[in-house]
Amino acid sequence: MSYLAVDHVTKIYPSLEPDAKKGDEFVVFDEINFTIEKGEFVSMIGHSGCGKSTLLNIMAGFDQATKGGIILDGRETSKPGLDRMVVFQNFALMPWKTAYENVALAVRQSHKEWSKAEVKEWTMKYLQMMNLESAANRRPSMLSGGMRQRVGLARAFAAEPKILLLDEPFAQIDALTRGSIQEELLRMWEATKSTVFMVTHDVDEAILLSNRIAMMSSGPHAKLAEMVNIDIPRPRVRSELIDDPKYMQIRNHIIKFLVSGETGVGDKASNNVAELKAV
Amino acid sequence: MALNQFNLKLGKYAPYLLSIIILGVLLLIWSGMTGIPKFDPSGLSEDDLMMQEMNGDIIRDESGEYINNPDKLSAIPGPGRVYDKAVTELSAPFEKMGTNDHGIGWLVVYTLKRFLVGFLLATVVAVFLGMLIGMSKTLLMALNPFIQVLKPVSPLAWMPLLLYSVKDPYITSVLVVFMASLWPTMANTAFGVSNIKKDYIRVSEMVEMSWFRRFYSVVLPASAPAIFAGLRISFGSALVAVVPAEMLLGELGVGYLSWIEWNNLDIAGVIFAIIVVGVVGFLLDYGLSKLAQRFTYVEA
Fold first, then answer.
1. Has residue A125 got a pLDDT over 50?
2. Does A166 touch chain B (CB under 8 A)?
3. Can you give the CATH number for the domain in which B268 is found?
4. What's the complex ipTM?
5. What is the pLDDT of residues B206-252, one digit of tens each?
6. What is the CATH number of the domain that holds A174?
7. How many CB atoms neighbour CB B67 within 10 A?
8. Is B162 within the bounds of a domain?
9. Interface of B with A (CB under 8 A)
C-alpha cells in the first residue's frame, strides 16, 4: 500500500458556457490516478487550466472531489489539517503577525501540549534553517517576496506534516532569488525526510527538485498523461545540471509534450525512461 | 518653483510655517473686515452726543475722545473680541455660576461624556452585530436592505421618537449619538468580516484552529482595518449629531454653549464655541487614528 494515493479523482463543475443547458457539465480533469511514496518529491506540470491547482486544493481539503478520493497513510482525507501543510503561491502569511508568530502559530497548533519555551525553540530552529533569524520580528509587509515564501516554507515544515503541498511556490519570486530558495527547499526536504507534492509550470524547477514528474494534458477532461522518472543523481547542482545530457533529454521531452500536447512515445507509464536510459 | 525653493530651505518645518502664515493672513482679513468703525462726531450737536453716550452707543477713550462702544456693535466681532471672550471663559473653566452657567471645562466634559457613552455603546453593539451578520452570507444579504435604508436617516430624525419613548433629555441625547454611530460601523464590520481573504481562512483551517481561536486571532485582526474605517465614519457622524442634539434638548455642553450665546446675542461667544467644538473634535479624532494604527496592518 502506498503512502499517498490519488484515487480516481474527478472534478466536475456545472458548465458556465453561454449556451449551456441546465445539468451540462464541465469536466476539469478525469480519473486522475497516481501514488506517492514516503520521502518522495513529486511534481505536477501542465498548462494553466488543466486543474493542477484544483487537484492540490482537493488534496489539501480546501476543495472536494466530485468522484474519487485521496488516501493518506491509510486514511481517506476530507477536511484540511496539519498533516497536509500547504505552501501557497501568494504566501498567505497573516500580515498582522511577525514572521516568528506566523511560524509559531503552526507549531503551537501541531504541538498543543508544548510549553511556550518549547514552541519558541522549535520555531527558531525552522526559522534558522530557512535563514530567517534576522527577519523573525518583522511583519510580512517589511519582507521581500523571497523572504515571505521562506516564512511560508518554514511554517509548513515546522508542523511536520505527513505531506507538504506546494502550490506554484516560486511563481511570484524573481528568478535569482528563486534559485537560492529552491536549494534551501531541497536541503530542508533532505534534512526532514519529508514527502512533497508540488504543482508548477516551470520545467527546470520540476527537474531540479523532483523524483518524478506527473504531466497533465490540457483541460477540459485533463488526464494524467505520463509520469516521468527523473533519475539524475543527487545532489543536483543547477550549474552542472545544464550540461548533463540526461537533463537535456528529459527537459526536451517535457517541453515537447507541453508544446504538442502529446506524450510522443507509446502510452503512459515509464517506457520513455527506458528510452532515455538508452541514449 | 518659488514654493519648492522655500520647501528646500526649511525642510520639514515648511508646512508648519506655511500653516502659521495662512493663520496670520486669515486673522488679518478677519480683523480687517470686522474692525470697529471710526466714530465721526461732525454734524452732531453736543446734545446728540450726550444722548448717544447715555445710550451707551459711544464711550470716551482714555484721551476723552468719543469712540463707538464695541460691546454695543451688532456686527460680527473681530479676532480681538473673540480672544477676549476666550480668555474670560478659559480663566474660570470649572466654575459653576448658576444652573445653566457652567464653566467651559464642564461643558466640554459634559459633551465628551455624552459623546463617549453613546459612541462606545454603539461600537460594542455595531461590532458584535456586524460580525454576526458578516459571518453568514445569507444573513448579510437578508439584512443589507434594512441597514441601507436606516443608514442615511439623520440621527436627529430619531430624536422626537426617542424623547417620546425614554422621556429623558439626557438619555435621548446619548441615544442620538448612539444612532449616529451605529450604522457605519455595523455596515463596515459586516463588510470586512465577509471579505476576509480566503487565504487567511484556509490557513486557519489548515492548522486546525478552534472556532474561538480563529475568531480572535484571525477574523478579528483581519477585519480590524475595515472596522476602524467604519469607526472613523461613525465618529464624524456622531460628532456632527451631538451639537444639534444639545441645542434642541437644552442639555449642557459645547453645542448648548453655542446656542446660549446666540440667545445672549454674544456672537463672540458663538465663534468661541465653534472653535471649542473644532478643537475637541480634532483631539478625539487624533486619538482614534493613533488607536487605529496600533490595530491595523499593512497588506503584504
1. yes
2. no
3. 1.10.3720.10
4. 0.86
5. 999 998 999 889 998 999 999 999 999 999 999 889 999 998 888 88
6. 3.40.50.300
7. 15
8. yes
9. 197, 199-200, 202-203, 205-209, 217-218, 221-222, 224, 296-300
